[in-house]
Amino acid sequence: MRISILGAGSWGTTVAALVCKRHDTLLWTRDPGIVEEINDKHHNQVYLPGFALPEALTATHDMEAAVSRAQLLIIGVPSHVFRGVLGRTADHVPPWIPVVSLAKGLEHGTHLRMTQIIEQVLPGHPAAALTGPNLAREILAGKAAAAVIATENPSVAGMLQTILQRGLLRVYTNDDVTGCELGGALKNVVAIAAGMAEGLGVGDNTRAAVITRGLAELTQLGAAMGGKAATFAGLTGLGDLLATCLSPHSRNRHVGEQLGKGRVLGDVLAEMVMVAEGVSTTPVAVQLGDRHGLELPICRIINQVLTGETTARDAYADLRHTPAGTESGPW
Fold it and tell me: In the CATH hierarchy, which top-level class contains the domain 185-321?
């Protein structure tokens, strides 16, 4: 199968490196320097320093060349540019081919999930999301991992499962697209909170409480938006949450940790090559909480830290002083 992947960040490059061993794979990036490095040196030092890429993987900065050949199109760009990049494909993408999102975020303004954007921009194309606890560096290093392909179309799910499963990467299917995508997006907010706990040095008990109550918040919001509560106890909910909150490779945890150490958000983000989706997802989560009448205290206090209304230290003090209700309810 001819597979085209748009976006040569760490995860897009990793997926391309996996599937190119059995399929004709072309990776698109707007950066000619990365194209040259992948094609000539088989590296992507900007996003995956120290890793060798398969010689079978080729790259291009020609969008039309990448898209027009595709029998499967995978979009691996951040959520804030997702619609724009996808729009550029509309005149070139072959009819009816599946389109898979790798992004874990929600669109500002519309609050749409990425598969919903695919359905808007490329109507008639089966839309799916690949999500779960997938830290790119570990997978590229050959360590075992599990992912989920989320789509309501069972035949497309089976085809994508066969294509994407490779080596020690197990790929499950799930027809709860809403729950899977929301779990992947909202866990980034909790990861910032967990990182703050690490930066503040408040202890593992506190961090465990924040992760657990954060899971309750994203489950409440996800269920209110139409996802299945059980989905948030699976790979795309709890699994992704744990990996993102605990791994030192997590971008969102890193942001929170630096804020916990007293640093300014703008300075932290300026040092990062890759995008921490939780920074842009947090205000969207708060807006969705307002829409559905949910308290979401962790999401709200993290949003206040990100906007500079409070500090990470004061945020944790506020959470400690919040009266405890039932465990099945808010914080």
Answer: mainly alpha
Summarize pLDDT for 292-329 with one digit per residue, the tens. 999 999 999 999 999 999 999 999 887 776 767 677 66
41 annotated as a binding-site residue: no
Ramachandran bin of 296, using left for φ above 0, alpha for ψ from -120 to 50, beta for the remaining angles: left
β-partners of residue 3 are 25, 72
Superfamily in which the 2-175 domain is placed by CATH: NAD(P)-binding Rossmann-like Domain (3.40.50.720)
Give the model confidence (pLDDT) of 5-38 as tens digits. Answer: 999 999 999 999 999 999 999 999 999 999 999 9
CA-CA-CA-CA dihedral for 224, 112, 277, 296, to nearest 10 = -20
Residue 187 marked ligand-binding = yes
Q: Catalytic residue among 41, 187, 228, 261, which? A: 187
Does the annotation mark 187 as catalytic?
A: yes
